[in-house]
């Protein structure tokens, strides 16, 4: 369960001890001296900072900028992270303290952030001041974390919890940073929440006169730092954790491209935020919801049984509600769990297209069930490679769109049977769907339960106040858990939900046609 915390703070400048010491206090060292990292702290307050002027310094790496996701990235070497810096033998969990020390250093030293624009940053070295502040914050944060853990163990020998909240980290850093406000959420998309939270901060009157705004992001047990610099109108993102092939990370984004930075943070820094939660199951996935809407729309306007029928209206309504409630999630294309759903939809529409081109042939329901099960449980590792994944997604999306257009403009099949034949057809179709003793019928026991839970979910989306009843919550949870088995017993390529409701609507359509021919 993700928790994001917003920290907006500014730091009091320390008064200079002498008149000639009003500029930034840096430890002047010889860049060629390899013992400079052993320089002692004279005052015991401030960590030594190296005034780097040569890129060949043994203390600070020379890092060139790269372009990825429309952002400027500086990826530090493998050993420059909170868990590996200085030959650290054990992993570090001091990310919250490191974030506070970084905010303190950036505020005290008033480091000038560079003006960066687009492709001109490609190959640009990372500003030495940012690297120095980042590395010093990692060193000081790890030291303060060890001291704070020693105090915890003295108070209680059974205290082994080594994570710190933002207030605890501020106290461990001697309260040099002041927290102004925070907000948190759970069971929400990190991408959407971060966008709203940052927009709220930038529009706040409390920090309207601040030239620089500091925000700490705490999610999934990891803390990162986001800084907005008003003079340069840019966002700087700092992550002290180690990554797959490199160490800590510094990222820049112009304020116009902030949405790209948010997607990058959610997909690369916190990939857990893209995993489906209890509320974000497969059937409310945005891509799945969109394709349900496409299939329902095609069936509503192109199928003779659905056009103008009550069943078609119900199907179109449920699909519209599902897509409307998940439309804000539709931009999420970082995950690849939508590919089986895309493949199922493509095959569903391909079967309809094949039946229309070859009316003499009919796809067997049992074969459709086998196809559905195989594709539904298809190993997702087959789509693990980015290039293969994107090519397959593009092919399926364009294939679904092409088939939808073809089915929409195609002429519907004409019903040439008599009234008695239509009555027998409707009796066979409608009654067999509601034959409860047959679990394999379209609307058997599990099919009915599935449709009922789906309608309940749609009602809850429209009227969330009903969730205040704990008993109703428990009943809905049980229904949803059992109704998932309906996917295994409904003869559908595209899961039990769409096909069961579509077949119900088809039964209503056949019944309406029979009533019209019989009595009118």
UniProtKB/TrEMBL annotation:
Keywords: Membrane, Transmembrane, Transmembrane helix. It comes from the Eukaryota. The chain crosses the membrane at residues 282-302, 308-326, 366-384, 391-410, 471-498. This is Uncharacterized protein. It comes from Steinernema hermaphroditum. The lineage of its organism: Eukaryota, Metazoa, Ecdysozoa, Nematoda, Chromadorea.
